[in-house]
Design goal:
The complex is a heterodimer of chains A (about 475) and B (about 325). Chain A has about 475 residues and is mainly alpha-helical. Chain A is about 70% helix and about 5% strand. In chain A, the strands form three sheets. A two-stranded antiparallel ribbon of chain A has the order 1-2. In chain B, about 75% of the residues lie in helices and about 5% in strands. Classes of the chains: A mainly alpha (about 475), B mainly alpha (about 325).
Chain lengths: ~475, ~325
C-alpha cells in the first residue's frame, strides 16, 4: 500500500520525527544536570535545606527526562545505518570517530554515575555524591561537544579528503573537529539548553508562587531562573548573531532562505519581518519589510550589497518557507526570553519579585518556549542545509539506504505510535511532579522510609503524607 | 599496519558487544522473567536490583553500534538495512523497557501497564537481537557497497531458533542474577527457575550448534576439518564442564557461582560464534579488512579506547560496588 511513496521522503520524515523528539530531552537534561550540580554545590557550601529539597525535587524530574533522552538517543545512533546507509558508508571514517568519542567520553560518564546520583546519596556520602552529580553534568556537556562537532562538520566540512571509494577521510582531525561553524553552534546550543531549563524552572516556580508567594522552594527556583535568564538571554542573542554571520560566510544560501532573499540586493537589502515565501515563483508574497535592515544586521552597513538565491543554482536551493518561518519563531521567542529576564530584574529592583502576578503569569506562559525555540532553531539550520547532508558535497537523495518504501513507512508508523505513547506518558508524569511544590524533607528518587524501599516515591503518596 | 588495526578493532567491537550481552543480558532477562513473579513486592525488588546500573549496561550497545559505524563503516552500511526490521523492533522494545524503570513508580494505577511494557519490551528486544544474530550467521546478500537482499531475508527457521536461544539464555542470566541479589522466597523461586532454564539453554545451544554447520560450507569446514577439530572440539568440551559445575552450584546453593558460570557459558558460545564468523564482518561477503575505515580513523579512535575504556570499566565497577550485596526488600539497599 506504500509502494507509491518516495522512500527518501519517508526516510527524511522518520529522521525529522525521531530527532525532533530526541532533541527536546537533551536540551532539557543538559541544563538540568548543570542546575542540579549547582544546587548540590550550594547545599554543600551553605548547608541550607532549601537547596537539597530543590535538588531532590528536580532530580526526580531529571530521572524521567534523562531516561527518555537515553532511549530516544539509542534510536538515533542506529538510524544512520538503517535509513542512511550510503551516508554512513561515506562519512563513517570522519563522523564515526566523533560519535565513538561521544560514547566513550559522555554516555558512559553519564550512565556510569547516574545510578549513584539517583540512588546513592546515603551509600557514598554527600561529597562523593556531588562528584557523581558533577560527572553526570560534565557528561551531558561532553555529549553536546561531540555531537555538535559532528553536526557542524556536516554544515561546514573541513580537514577531510575523499578516497577512491568515495568515502570522506580525515586529513587533519583538529580542523575536522573544530570546523568553522562548530564554536558558534556549540555555544548557541548549550546556551539554548540553559535557557530552556531556566524557563521550565522559572515556570514551575512561578506556578507555585501564584498559588503561594511564601513557598520557599518556589521563591528560590524563580529567583535563580530569572537571574540566569537575564544574563544568558542577551548573551544568546549575541551568540546567535555571530552564528548567523558565520553561516553567511560558509552557507550563504541558508541565510538567504532564512531572510527570504530570493533576489539579490545590490544597494542594501531590506529585512522582511513577515511574508509568505512562494518557492515556485521565487518571491515573498505580502512581505512587510524594513528597508536596509538586513544589510545592517548581516554586513553591519546600510548599503552593503547582499546576494540572493538568484545567484545559487536552483537545484541547490533550500526550502525557503520552512527555513524562513522557523527562523522567525526562534528569534521571536529569543526576544521574549530576554524581555522576561529584564522584567524579572525590574520587579526584583522594585522588591516585587515574589508577588508580581503578571510577571509570574508571563514566566508560566514562557515555560515551554525554550523547547519550541530549540526545535525551531534546529529546523532552521537543518532544513537550511538541504538539499545536502554534507553541505555542498553529498546530496540527501544520494545518502539514503537502498530502502523499500513499505519498510520505511511501517517503521515510521511504529515510531510515531510508540513515541507518542511513551513520551506523552513521561510528560504527564513530569507535569504531575511539577504540580506539587518542593517541600521540607523532599525525598530523592529513592526514599529513605522503609515502607517505600521500592524506590522512587509515588507522587500521590507525598501529597497525602505531607499535605493531607 | 592496516591488517593489525582492523584485527584490533574487530576484537574491540567484539569485546563491546560481549560486554553488552553480559551486562544488558541479565537485565533483559529479568524483564523476560517478570510475568512469573506476580507479587508487587517481588517485582519491586527485581527492578531495584538493576535500576542503578541498567543505563550503563545499555551504553555498551551504543559503543558496539557506534564502533562498527566508525571502524567498519561499510559493514555498518550493509548490515543495518539488511537487519532493518529486527533492529527497529529491538529499538522500539528498548524504548518501552527503558522508560518502564522510571514510569512504573509514578502511578499505582498504571503500574501494571508499565510492568507489561517492561516484559514485552525486554522480550521483543531480546528476540530481535537473537534473530539479527541468526540472520547475520546465515549470510547477507551484498552487491557493490550496499545490501542487495529482500526485506524478509532475515526471517528463517534458523534466525527464529537463534532468537529463541537468546531468550532462554538471557532468562537464565536474569534468574541467576536474582539468585545472587535476593533472599528468601524470591531466591528460592529463582533457584527453581534456574534449573529449568539451564536445561532450556543447553537444548538451545545444542540446537544452534547443530544447525550452524549446515548453513554453509565455510562453517562446517572450520569446525570439523582436521586438524581444526582438535581446537574447536575444546569448545563443546568446555561447555560440558561448565554445565556440570553449574548443576553442582545450583544444588549446593552457592549464590554467586551460578551467575558467573552462566557468563562462562555465554563466553564459550560467543567464542564459538567468533570461530564461525572470523574474519568476516558480513559473513561470506565482506571481511574486516575490506570494511575497515582508513587507518588514521582507526588509529585516532584507538587512542581514545586505550585510554578511556579502562577508566570506564573502573568507574562502572565502582558503581556496581556501591550497590553490591543483596537487595533487602524492607529497607532498600543497606
Amino acid at each position: 500500500m506504500f509502494e507509491t511513496l518516495d522512500p527518501v521522503v519517508l526516510a527524511r520524515l522518520q529522521f525529522a520525527f525521531t530527532v525532533s523528539f530526541h532533541i527536546i530531552f537533551p536540551a532539557f537534561s543538559i541544563g538540568l544536570a548543570s542546575y542540579l550540580a549547582v544546587l548540590e554545590a550550594l547545599w554543600l557550601w551553605t548547608g541550607r535545606e532549601v537547596f537539597i529539597n530543590l535538588f531532590n525535587y528536580w532530580m526526580k524530574i531529571f530521572a524521567i527526562a534523562f531516561g527518555m533522552g537515553v532511549v530516544s538517543g539509542i534510536v538515533m545512533s542506529y538510524q544512520f545505518g538503517t535509513n542512511w546507509s550510503v551516508f554512513s558508508d561515506k562519512t563513517g571514517p570522519v563522523l564515526g570517530p566523533l560519535m565513538a568519542y561521544e560514547v566513550l567520553t559522555a554516555f558512559f560518564l553519564e550512565a556510569g554515575f547516574l545510578g549513584v546520583m539517583l540512588f546513592g546519596l546515603k551509600r557514598v556520602g554527600p561529597k562523593l555524591h556531588f562528584v557523581a552529580t558533577l560527572m553526570v553534568a560534565i557528561g551531558t556537556l561532553m555529549s553536546a561537544f561531540w555531537i555538535l562537532s559532528a553536526n557542524s562538520w556536516m554544515h561546514t566540512p573541513a580537514g577531510y579528503a575523499v578516497n577512491a571509494d568515495g568515502q570522506f577521510i580525515a586529513t587533519d582531525w583538529w580542523k575536522l573537529i573544530f570546523n568553522p561553524s562548530f564554536p558558534y553552534r556549540l555555544a548557541h546550543m548549550v546556551l539554548a539548553a540553559y535557557l530552556t531549563t531556566s524557563l521550565v524552572v522559572g515556570a514551575v516556580g512561578a506556578y507555585h508562587l501564584l498559588k503561594n508567594p511564601r513557598q520557599p522552594g518556589a521563591r528560590m527556583m524563580f529567583s535563580m531562573a530569572m537571574w540566569l535568564l537575564m544574563i544568558v538571554a542577551p548573551i544568546q542573542i549575541f551568540a546567535g548573531d555571530l552564528h548567523g554571520l558565520n553561516t553567511l560566510e560558509h552557507q550563504p544560501a541558508k541565510v538567504m532562505a532564512m531572510e527570504g532573499h530570493y533576489q539579490s540586493h545590490p544597494d542594501g537589502a531590506p529585512f522582511i519581518l513577515f511574508g509568505l515565501p512562494d518557492q515556485d515563483a521565487a518571491v515573498v508574497r505580502y512581505a512587510l519589510e524594513i528597508p536596509k535592515l538586513s544589510s545592517l544586521i548581516l554586513k553591519h552597513s546600510l548599503d552593503a550589497p547582499l546576494a540572493g538565491l538568484d545567484t545559487v543554482p536552483r537545484e541547490d536551493w533550500p526550502p525557503v518557507p520552512i527555513t524562513f518561518w522557523s527562523f522567525r519563531i526562534m528569534v521571536g521567542l529569543g526576544l521574549l526570553m530576554a524581555a522576561l529576564g529584564f522584567l524579572g530584574l525590574w520587579v526584583r529592583w522594585r522588591g516585587r519579585l515574589y508577588d508580581s502576578r503578571p510577571t509570574h503569569r508571563f514566566a508560566l506562559a514562557m515555560g515551554p518556549a525554550g523547547f519550541v525555540a530549540v526545535l525551531a532553531g534546529w529546523v532552521t539550520t537543518e532544513t537550511g542545509r538541504q538539499p545536502f547532508t554534507v553541505f555542498g558535497l553529498l546530496r540527501t537523495v544520494d545518502s539514503v539506504s537502498p530502502l523499500a518504501a513499505p519498510a520505511v513507512a511501517w517503521s515510521l508508523i511504529a515510531f510515531v505510535i510508540v513515541y507518542f505513547a511513551v513520551f506523552i506518558a513521561g510528560t504527564v508524569y513530569i507535569l504531575r511532579l511539577m504540580a506539587h511544590p518542593p517541600h521540607h524533607g523532599e525525598e530523592g528518587p529513592r526514599g529513605e522510609t522503609p515502607s517505600r524501599a521500592a524506590g522512587i516515591t509515588p507522587a500521590p503518596a507525598i501529597s497525602t503524607r505531607r499535605f493531607g | 599496519m592496516d591488517y593489525d588495526l582492523a584485527t584490533i578493532w574487530a576484537f574491540i567491537i567484539a569485546f563491546a558487544v560481549f560486554v553488552y550481552v553480559v551486562m544488558d543480558g541479565f537485565d533483559l532477562g529479568l524483564g523476560i522473567l517478570f510475568p512469573l513473579f506476580r507479587q508487587k513486592r517481588d517485582r519491586d525488588v527485581i527492578m531495584n536490583s538493576v535500576a542503578p546500573v541498567w543505563d550503563g549496561n545499555e551504553t555498551w550497545l551504543v559503543l558496539g553500534g557506534g564502533g562498527l559505524f566508525a571502524a567498519f563503516p561499510l559493514a555498518y552500511a550493509v548490515l543495518m538495512p539488511a537487519l532493518y526490521t529486527p533492529i527497529i523492533a529491538m529499538l522500539l522494545g528498548l524504548v518501552f523497557r527503558g522508560v518502564a524503570f522510571e514510569f512504573r513508580w509514578r502511578s499505582q494505577r498504571e503500574r501494571n501497564r508499565w510492568d507489561m511494557a517492561f516484559f514485552g519490551g525486554s522480550l521483543i528486544a531480546t528476540m530481535a537481537q537473537g534473530v539479527a544474530l541468526g540472520a547475520l550467521l546465515q549470510g547477507i546478500a551484498v552487491e557493490g557497497r550496499g545490501y542487495a537482499g529482500g526485506w524478509w531475508d532475515w526471517l528463517t527457521p534458523f534466525s527464529v531458533l537463534t532468537g529463541l536461544a537468546l531468550v532462554t539464555g538471557y532468562a537464565m542470566l536474569g534468574a541467576t542474577w536474582l539468585v545472587m541479589k535476593t533472599t528468601g522466597e524470591l531466591r528460592d523461586e529463582a533457584y527453581r527457575l534456574s534449573r529449568w532454564l539451564l536445561l532450556a539453554m543447553l537444548v538451545a545451544i545444542i540446537a544452534v550448534s547443530a544447525a550452524t554447520p549446515f548453513l554453509s560450507y565455510d562453517y562446517s569446514e572450520r569446525w570439523f576439518a582436521w586438524p581444526n577439530v582438535l581446537a574447536t572440539a575444546q569448545v563443546p568440551l568446555a561447555v560440558a564442564i561448565v554445565t556440570a559445575l553449574l548443576l553442582r552450584a545450583l544444588a549446593q546453593r552457592r549464590d554467586y557461582q551460578p551467575f558467573l558460570l552462566t557468563l562462562c557459558l555465554f563466553a564459550l558460545s560467543y567464542a564459538g560464534l567468533g570461530i564461525s564468523i572470523w574474519p568476516y564482518v558480513v559473513p561470506r561477503s565482506i571481511t574486516i579488512w575490506q570494511a575497515a575505515a582508513p587507518e588514521n580513523s582507526q588509529l585516532f579512535m584507538l587512542v581514545g579506547v586505550a585510554i578511556l575504556v579502562p577508566i570506564i570499566l573502573a568507574y562502572t565497577a565502582w558503581a556496581y560496588w556501591v550497590f553490591r550485596g543483596k537487595v533487602d526488600p524492607d529497607s532498600g539497599y543497606h
